[in-house]
Amino acid sequence: VHPNVSQGCQGGCATCSDYNGCLSCKPRLFFVLERIGMKQIGVCLSSCPSGYYGTRYPDINKCAKCKADCDTCFTRNFCTKCKSGFYLYSGKCLEKCPDGLEANNHTMECTSIMHCEASEWSPWSPCTKKGKTCGFKRGNEVRVREIVQHPSARGNPCPATSESRKCIVQRKRCQKEGKGKKNREEKRKKSNKDESKETRQESKGRAARRQNREQRENNDKTQPKKRKAPNKEQNLAPIDTAH
């Protein structure tokens, strides 16, 4: 053992030196060299930092560098995340995606081109005009379909999701309200009308009777009173029976 090697190290080191830092690590920790200026210092970590991948050996666990275009990797030849400007495809970092694939700028990966897919058309709707299905002869009917797969950046765009065409129907009148409700409304109006008519007739009758009564009273006031004829029996002189 080198004279500078110490057995009482800190930070997960099994052995260390004042000049080079960790020389070996405790079990299950990874040994990695960190550059500080022109000097490399050994450190022991529970997992390898970005840009490194871990390898385990019987005597030591080491962190080795990924390729220059790889940000994180599983092994030196299998990258899991690329650096800026590169797209990941099958563990490799590429500047341009292969034919039949497209670059996804969100995930920075080469992905398959997805074309738009639509469902089958629905049946044609009833013939309508201005939202109504009656009161006209010529109208329009429509049918719709749904998008089941949206396209990727280079995929074929989606087709129209609705269609409209002219239609002809047998013209029929529109019912404003339900038949029962309409009949009740008509009965109510008729009842109100009859009641109003009876009320008017009663009012006319009372007015006519009042007018006749007032006319009779006026006539009685203007005509002179008739004298009563004398009783004939009272005016007869008594018969003289003395002769």
UniProtKB/TrEMBL annotation:
<dbReference type="InterPro" id="IPR000884">
    <property type="entry name" value="TSP1_rpt"/>
</dbReference>
<dbReference type="InterPro" id="IPR051514">
    <property type="entry name" value="R-spondin"/>
</dbReference>
<dbReference type="InterPro" id="IPR009030">
    <property type="entry name" value="Growth_fac_rcpt_cys_sf"/>
</dbReference>
<dbReference type="InterPro" id="IPR006212">
    <property type="entry name" value="Furin_repeat"/>
</dbReference>
<dbReference type="GO" id="GO:2000052">
    <property type="term" value="P:positive regulation of non-canonical Wnt signaling pathway"/>
</dbReference>
<keyword id="KW-0677">Repeat</keyword>
<dbReference type="GO" id="GO:0005102">
    <property type="term" value="F:signaling receptor binding"/>
</dbReference>
<comment type="similarity">
    <text>Belongs to the R-spondin family.</text>
</comment>
<feature type="compositionally biased region" description="Basic and acidic residues">
    <location>
        <begin position="175"/>
        <end position="223"/>
    </location>
</feature>
<keyword id="KW-0325">Glycoprotein</keyword>
<feature type="domain" description="Spondin-like TSP1">
    <location>
        <begin position="116"/>
        <end position="170"/>
    </location>
</feature>
<dbReference type="GO" id="GO:0005576">
    <property type="term" value="C:extracellular region"/>
</dbReference>
<keyword id="KW-0716">Sensory transduction</keyword>
<feature type="region of interest" description="Disordered">
    <location>
        <begin position="169"/>
        <end position="243"/>
    </location>
</feature>
<dbReference type="Pfam" id="PF15913">
    <property type="entry name" value="Furin-like_2"/>
</dbReference>
<dbReference type="InterPro" id="IPR044004">
    <property type="entry name" value="TSP1_spondin_dom"/>
</dbReference>
<feature type="domain" description="R-spondin Fu-CRD">
    <location>
        <begin position="11"/>
        <end position="110"/>
    </location>
</feature>
<keyword id="KW-0964">Secreted</keyword>
<dbReference type="Pfam" id="PF19028">
    <property type="entry name" value="TSP1_spondin"/>
</dbReference>
<protein>
    <recommendedName>
        <fullName>R-spondin-3</fullName>
    </recommendedName>
</protein>
<dbReference type="InterPro" id="IPR036383">
    <property type="entry name" value="TSP1_rpt_sf"/>
</dbReference>
<dbReference type="GO" id="GO:0008201">
    <property type="term" value="F:heparin binding"/>
</dbReference>
<keyword id="KW-0879">Wnt signaling pathway</keyword>
<comment type="subunit">
    <text>Interacts with the extracellular domain of FZD8 and LRP6. It however does not form a ternary complex with FZD8 and LRP6. Interacts with WNT1. Binds heparin. Interacts with LGR4, LGR5 and LGR6.</text>
</comment>
<keyword id="KW-1015">Disulfide bond</keyword>
<keyword id="KW-0732">Signal</keyword>
<keyword id="KW-0358">Heparin-binding</keyword>
<comment type="function">
    <text>Activator of the canonical Wnt signaling pathway by acting as a ligand for LGR4-6 receptors, which acts as a key regulator of angiogenesis. Upon binding to LGR4-6 (LGR4, LGR5 or LGR6), LGR4-6 associate with phosphorylated LRP6 and frizzled receptors that are activated by extracellular Wnt receptors, triggering the canonical Wnt signaling pathway to increase expression of target genes. Also regulates the canonical Wnt/beta-catenin-dependent pathway and non-canonical Wnt signaling by acting as an inhibitor of ZNRF3, an important regulator of the Wnt signaling pathway.</text>
</comment>
<dbReference type="GO" id="GO:0016055">
    <property type="term" value="P:Wnt signaling pathway"/>
</dbReference>
<dbReference type="InterPro" id="IPR043601">
    <property type="entry name" value="Rspo_Fu-CRD_dom"/>
</dbReference>
